[in-house]
């Protein structure tokens, strides 16, 4: 699998990385590791650490999933999602905001949740979880911050480690978060060839020249086995080709279990 995926990604050019981990009830086994420590702009993968920090604060009683919050004008960004287009009087719950942030990648919702939990808190928690190269430095769709050199960063290795905590039941509010990841609306990248009935708890991410997908695949009739898949790309000049290539990568991984 490693050789086939490496050859597939080599055809894209630019920068690419992929990590595939097999987890069962005993241990984790690394199946693919390509540029696992290469640093990438996280794009919307940064929303997973933000969700995890929100869940941590809920578990400590600092926040509540049911609490309602106004949408500050400075949080509104007219890009992915729907929240910026809705009534200014709307007061969604923290659960609503986090659900939109993950499932439809709503950037306004992400900015509200990030302000609620605090950027520093997200970064401290990621460090405590062992994600040495993951850092949140800006809000979403903040082009002024990007021009100033502030970015949200991660690696395929860090994302794979973070997702492994879901499988090992080491995160508070785990079931709430998995339910959101399982309702991710964009299935056009890794799971494009799998069929809608195949569970994949994942988050996609994209900026100009960047396409990512990272999640937990539950192979049919696997007996409790789960597979963590993280693929990251940047400096891509042909977005349709990149999406198609990553969907073929997902098919390679799916076929490994379907034909086993």
Poorly predicted runs are: none
CATH homologous superfamily classification: DD-peptidase/beta-lactamase superfamily
Named at the architecture level, the CATH assignment is: 3-Layer(aba) Sandwich
The assigned structural class equals alpha+beta
Q: In the CATH hierarchy, what is the class? A: Alpha Beta
Distance N to C terminus: 13 Å
Biggest sheet, strands in spatial order? 2-1-7-6-5
Largest sheet: 5 strands, antiparallel
Overall spatial form: globular
* Count of helical stretches: 9
List the domain count as a whole number.
1
Short note summarizing the structure:
The chain is of the alpha+beta class and 260 residues long.
Structure description:
The chain is α+β, with helices and mostly antiparallel strands and 260 residues long. It has one domain (2-255): DD-peptidase/beta-lactamase superfamily (Beta-lactamase, 3-Layer(aba) Sandwich), CATH 3.40.710.10. It is built from nine helices and seven strands. The chain has a five-stranded antiparallel sheet, with helices on both faces. A hairpin with an 8-residue loop joins strand 6 (210-217) and strand 7 (226-234). The longest helix is centred in the C-terminal third of the chain and has 20 residues, at 239-258. The radius of gyration is 18 Å and the shape is globular. 42% of the residues are buried. The model has no long low-confidence stretch (mean pLDDT 94).
């Amino acid at each position: 699998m490693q050789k086939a995926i490496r050859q597939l990604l080599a055809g894209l050019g630019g920068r690419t990385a992929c990590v595939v981990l097999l987890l069962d009830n005993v241990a984790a086994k690394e199946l693919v590791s390509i540029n696992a420590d290469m640093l990438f702009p996280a794009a919307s993968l940064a929303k997973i650490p933000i969700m995890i920090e929100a869940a941590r604060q809920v578990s400590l009683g600092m926040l509540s999933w049911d609490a309602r919050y106004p949408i500050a004008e400075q949080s509104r960004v007219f890009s992915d999602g729907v929240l910026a287009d809705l009534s200014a009087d709307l007061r969604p719950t923290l659960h609503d905001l986090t659900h939109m942030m993950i499932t439809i990648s709503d950037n306004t919702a992400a900015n509200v949740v990030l302000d609620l939990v605090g950027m520093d808190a997200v970064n401290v928690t990621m460090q405590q979880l062992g994600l040495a190269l993951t850092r949140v430095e800006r809000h979403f769709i903040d082009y002024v911050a990007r021009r100033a050199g502030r970015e949200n960063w991660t690696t395929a290795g860090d994302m794979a480690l973070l997702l492994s905590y879901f499988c090992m039941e080491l995160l508070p509010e785990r079931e709430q978060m998995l339910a959101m990841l399982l309702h991710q609306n964009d299935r056009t990248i890794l799971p494009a060839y799998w069929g809608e009935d195949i569970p994949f708890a994942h988050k996609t991410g994209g900026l100009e020249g960047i396409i990512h997908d990272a999640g937990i695949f539950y192979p049919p009739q696997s007996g409790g086995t789960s597979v963590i898949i993280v693929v990251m790309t940047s400096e891509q000049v042909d977005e349709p080709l990149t999406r198609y290539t990553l969907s073929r990568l997902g098919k390679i991984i799916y076929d490994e279990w379907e034909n086993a």
